[in-house]
Design brief:
32% helix; 4 domains; OB fold (Dihydrolipoamide Acetyltransferase, E2P); four-stranded antiparallel beta sheet; 38% strand; six-stranded antiparallel β-barrel; Elongation Factor Tu (Ef-tu), domain 3; 5 helices; alpha+beta
Length: 390
């Protein structure tokens, strides 16, 4: 009797359990079928456009003064005047310092007096020679006397020339008492003061004058760029643009002057030299700057914001927004990225719409909602917070 009761209860429990499973399963199926579609992901998108894009080669360089001269004295003497201030812009020939000229002026006076004395003796000797010659024609003077007088005249003529040479040399020495700037430029730190004696052997001289207008820039590029540079040089001079180290300030625009005649084998780089007018003096000797060598300008090239380009295991790619507002992963080839713009030469066409912000949540086929500016950032932040919630 008990056994029959247990069997009946077991069968009844099984029946009730099966009905519950059928009932709840039937109720669950419509709920699954009515799940909402995934929400569209807010993104910022931009249209691919064509424009003229400059092609640059980038390098780091050091500014070199066009000319640098140490102003040294060629004579010894006491400095009696300093005619410049440190950091002053000077022209070629401007007076920088004056050495005491009196010893050299005295030499000139002495040599001038010697010349005048010898000239007076020469005039007397020439007059005697004229008289002896007349007497000789009449037989009153011997040929020996006339020859002796001619020799004396020649001797005095040589003495006058020697005196004049000494005067000229003394004038040159006197000119050296004026220390002038040999080039246009900017003066540095003064190395000697008024009252001190300057010597030709002084290693530091008076001051260093540096020419900064124009000015040069030495920079390096990889040796692999040499063939392309040589090819473009056949078309004409190449422009070089100098930027500050943070690439935010354009310092000056110049022209490529030289491609060095050998490659630096230790680094595999090529040294180039450019010249800049530097009228605003933004380039300074010894300054480290970024150089951009303009090779060419591509007409109607396709560009997108640099933030649109992503890197994957197979290379660069972007997300393209299709007309049905879904995202498509599109491989691309990036020729260069400059000033926040990526030059695309493969993978896109003009008019394509690409995602430039918010693509980190996208995948192939994701639904997207195009937003702009602040709205896009707020929507993206809200979606991120929701995704983080349990």
């Amino acid at each position: 009797m008990k056994r029959r009761l247990v069997i009946v209860l077991f069968v009844l429990a099984a029946a009730l359990g099966g009905g519950s499973v059928w009932y709840f399963g039937k109720r669950a199926r419509p709920a699954a079928a009515s799940l909402p579609a995934p929400a569209a992901i807010p993104v910022v998108a931009a249209t691919v456009t064509g424009r003229n894009v400059p092609i640059y080669l980038r390098g780091i360089g050091t500014v070199i003064a066009y000319n640098t001269d140490v102003v040294r004295s060629q004579i010894q003497g006491q400095i009696v005047q300093i005619a410049f201030t440190e950091g002053q812009t000077v022209k070629a020939g401007d007076l920088l310092a004056q050495i005491d000229p009196r010893p050299y002026e005295a030499q000139i006076e002495q040599f001038t007096a010697n010349r005048d004395r010898d000239q007076a003796q020469l005039m007397n000797a020439e007059a005697n020679l004229s008289r002896y010659t007349q007497l000789g024609d009449k037989g009153y003077a011997t040929p020996q006397l006339i020859e002796t007088q001619k020799a004396q005249v020649a001797q005095l003529q040589a003495a006058v020339k020697s005196d004049q040479a000494q005067i000229d040399e003394a004038k040159v020495q006197l000119s050296y008492t004026r220390l002038t700037s040999p080039i246009p430029g900017i003066t540095g730190v003064r190395q000697i003061d008024v009252g001190n004696v300057i010597h030709p052997t002084d290693p530091n001289g008076l001051v260093v004058v540096t020419q900064v207008e124009p000015i040069s820039l030495l920079f390096t590029l990889p040796e692999a760029d040499l063939p392309e540079i040589q090819q473009q040089l056949t078309k004409g001079p190449l422009k070089v643009i100098a930027y500050s180290q943070d690439n935010k300030i354009t310092l000056d625009e110049g022209e490529l002057l030289l491609v060095n005649n050998e490659i630096i084998q230790t680094t595999g780089t090529l040294q180039l030299k450019a010249t800049f007018p530097n009228r605003d003096h933004r380039l300074w000797p010894g300054q480290l700057v970024n150089a951009r060598l303009l090779l060419d300008t591509r007409k109607d090239a396709l560009t997108v914001a640099g933030s649109a380009v992503q890197q994957g295991p197979n290379g660069a790619y972007v997300y393209v927004v299709k007309p049905d507002q879904t995202a498509e992963l599109r491989p691309v080839h990036v020729a260069q990225i400059s000033d926040g713009q990526a030059l695309i030469d493969q993978g896109l066409k003009s008019g394509d719409v690409v995602v430039v912000d918010g693509q980190y949540r996208l995948k192939e086929g994701s639904r997207v909602q195009e937003l702009h500016g602040k709205a896009a950032r707020e929507a993206d932040l809200q979606s991120s917070v929701q995704d983080a919630l349990p």
